[in-house]
Amino acid sequence: MKDLTFLTLVSLCLLQPMVQAFFFGPIAVGLGVGLLAAGGGFLLGTSLSRSRSRRSYRQSRNYRYQPSHHWDSSYNRYYAQPRQNYYYGSDKWSSHHRGKRSADQLEELHRMKRDIDENGFNMNDWYRDMTEMDQDSCGKKLICELRSKEASGVSMSAEEKLIAEKFGSGKQVDVSDITVEFDLAAQIGRNMGEARCQQLYNRCETSTADMVKMIRTEFENLKDLQKDLDNSVDADAQMKKEKDDLMKEFKEDKIDLDKNWNWA
Known about the structure:
With 264 residues, the chain is mainly α. The protein has eleven helices and three strands; from the N terminus they run αβααβαβααααααα. The protein has helices at 2-14, 27-39, 43-48, 73-76, 100-119, 123-133, 138-151, 158-164, 180-192, 194-200, 208-252; strands at residues 22-25, 52-53, 87-91. The protein has a three-stranded antiparallel beta sheet. α7 (138-151) packs across α8.
């Protein structure tokens, strides 16, 4: 699994050329995206949600997140004052260019997916990473407030429900569980309310509403990547079939492909 983590980080560097823009924000975004990807069976997406930078963020008081500016680095500058905390970072997936470089990038993603299909994906290791990287407590604040929202009967989106329901499902918290910090946050939100969440996790300067918007934008981008992966598999299979059919016709017509043809 350590090899898979290393390969993921190396692959993220190799995939850098296909970006048109870059986003970075609280690790809670990676937590939410990874949970949604896992819920849809796209474990490659969960693995990619591990991406991180060794910079942290401090927001301007005037900063207001807008999904339309998600990939605009000039707006993301509000996250750029360094602190030694972990970060979620991502590149915008673009399938507009289909040159050799893009084919190489897709092949790298296919290789990563094959590795996960063959060797499995350790969700416990992923949860451990998310816990260790949640140094600003935005992940815990996200879970806490979503559970509080659920308990108060407020309408929730499908994404919010899926994220919230991953933690704190029982009435007690198992302190030996790898997800204990998120489970505890869920119980606090459910039983003590939003105000308590904000009090306990006040290091997080990003609102839960903004984090949910960020997660939704990131997940839509991830679904585009998944579609391109699926389509590239179909295209490769079709090309192979056409080549095999053509070779079969040559063989049936007794055409010698090794013969030197004179077209004059």
